[in-house]
Amino acid sequence: MKIRKIMVIGAGQMGSGIAQVCAQAGYDVILYDISEENIEKGMRNIEKNLVRQVEKQRMNEEGKEEVLAKVTPSAALQDASSVDLVIEAVVESMNVKRDIFARLDEITPDHTILASNTSSLPVTEIAAATDRPEKVIGMHFMNPVPVMKLVEIIRGLATSDEVYKKIEEVTKAIGKMPVEVNDFPGFVSNRILMPMINEAIYTLYEGIATKEAIDEVMKLGMNHPMGPIQLADFIGLDTCLSVMEILHEGFGDDKYRPCPLLRKYVKAGWVGKKAGRGFYTYD
Ligand code: NAD
């Protein structure tokens, strides 16, 4: 069956970006969130991104309106009963994701593929909350979604080849590059990236350099487009902490121990750009 209609669950920074790129590729999209305020914020975010594309003359006004018309905001999970693919992008919590997948398993038609944008949680465990583990898969987009080309595609233990192929096709159709990886904590991207970010926060915690100096070293010295402390703010410090905890627990090795300073910022609610304040402050 061809995929025509997609529900994106979670209208935060990732979900709104995923909804946008799917709509731009011509899919009908439902953008669902548990918080009405975040649905509105997510829709505004999409519109803002499209306006920027019009200003840069990458799209005309008519194109912008067409894309916007393809995204329907929703506060009812029941609307998943009409979709061929769900892409879940809610908070990085196994309990929350398992609960959503169990409900989706009841609401969606049998053919519907259920994908998670988790950055690090085992797809196999999310799939086990459903009676269709062969149709559950990881689709790990990078932030910011409209800009970044990679989608890590994670096969759960039971994911079928047919489902893998369909998700590979959708990924290409939305202009992204699929890369296949197996289901282990942090997959490939965050297994490598997050310990580096955590180490950067340790160097700040131990007073080895200022945050600006740490970011400058990595930008000028390693040619990274953004320093690790700023990148942590952009990703969200809550997400960074969750990923480190999953690596720590998953491998049982203290080299993945989250930095206490990272914990402190999350406890303070200073979770990065999306909160207006992380290690840096934002308007
Ligand atoms: P976010 O905090 O910006 O958005 C999360 C959204 O989920 C919020 O709008 C919240 O209201 C909603 N939500 C929470 N519980 C819900 C529920 N039960 N039902 C429906 N909606 C619910 O977070 P984000 O940065 O967009 O991250 C979302 C997911 O994407 C996480 O799994 C994260 O690990 C993953 N991810 C994040 C990044 C990144 O750089 N931030 C990159 C790749 C993947």
From TrEMBL:
<comment type="similarity">
    <text>Belongs to the 3-hydroxyacyl-CoA dehydrogenase family.</text>
</comment>
<keyword id="KW-0560">Oxidoreductase</keyword>
<dbReference type="InterPro" id="IPR036291">
    <property type="entry name" value="NAD(P)-bd_dom_sf"/>
</dbReference>
<feature type="binding site">
    <location>
        <position position="143"/>
    </location>
    <ligand>
        <name>NAD(+)</name>
    </ligand>
</feature>
<dbReference type="InterPro" id="IPR006108">
    <property type="entry name" value="3HC_DH_C"/>
</dbReference>
<feature type="binding site">
    <location>
        <position position="33"/>
    </location>
    <ligand>
        <name>NAD(+)</name>
    </ligand>
</feature>
<dbReference type="Pfam" id="PF00725">
    <property type="entry name" value="3HCDH"/>
</dbReference>
<dbReference type="GO" id="GO:0016616">
    <property type="term" value="F:oxidoreductase activity, acting on the CH-OH group of donors, NAD or NADP as acceptor"/>
</dbReference>
<feature type="binding site">
    <location>
        <position position="274"/>
    </location>
    <ligand>
        <name>NAD(+)</name>
    </ligand>
</feature>
<feature type="site" description="Important for catalytic activity">
    <location>
        <position position="140"/>
    </location>
</feature>
<dbReference type="InterPro" id="IPR008927">
    <property type="entry name" value="6-PGluconate_DH-like_C_sf"/>
</dbReference>
<dbReference type="Pfam" id="PF02737">
    <property type="entry name" value="3HCDH_N"/>
</dbReference>
<feature type="binding site">
    <location>
        <begin position="10"/>
        <end position="15"/>
    </location>
    <ligand>
        <name>NAD(+)</name>
    </ligand>
</feature>
<feature type="domain" description="3-hydroxyacyl-CoA dehydrogenase NAD binding">
    <location>
        <begin position="5"/>
        <end position="183"/>
    </location>
</feature>
<keyword id="KW-0520">NAD</keyword>
<feature type="binding site">
    <location>
        <position position="119"/>
    </location>
    <ligand>
        <name>NAD(+)</name>
    </ligand>
</feature>
<comment type="pathway">
    <text>Lipid metabolism; butanoate metabolism.</text>
</comment>
<dbReference type="InterPro" id="IPR006180">
    <property type="entry name" value="3-OHacyl-CoA_DH_CS"/>
</dbReference>
<feature type="binding site">
    <location>
        <position position="97"/>
    </location>
    <ligand>
        <name>NAD(+)</name>
    </ligand>
</feature>
<protein>
    <submittedName>
        <fullName>3-hydroxybutyryl-CoA dehydrogenase</fullName>
    </submittedName>
</protein>
<dbReference type="InterPro" id="IPR006176">
    <property type="entry name" value="3-OHacyl-CoA_DH_NAD-bd"/>
</dbReference>
<feature type="domain" description="3-hydroxyacyl-CoA dehydrogenase C-terminal">
    <location>
        <begin position="186"/>
        <end position="282"/>
    </location>
</feature>
<dbReference type="InterPro" id="IPR022694">
    <property type="entry name" value="3-OHacyl-CoA_DH"/>
</dbReference>
<dbReference type="GO" id="GO:0019605">
    <property type="term" value="P:butyrate metabolic process"/>
</dbReference>
<feature type="binding site">
    <location>
        <position position="92"/>
    </location>
    <ligand>
        <name>NAD(+)</name>
    </ligand>
</feature>
<dbReference type="GO" id="GO:0070403">
    <property type="term" value="F:NAD+ binding"/>
</dbReference>
<dbReference type="InterPro" id="IPR013328">
    <property type="entry name" value="6PGD_dom2"/>
</dbReference>
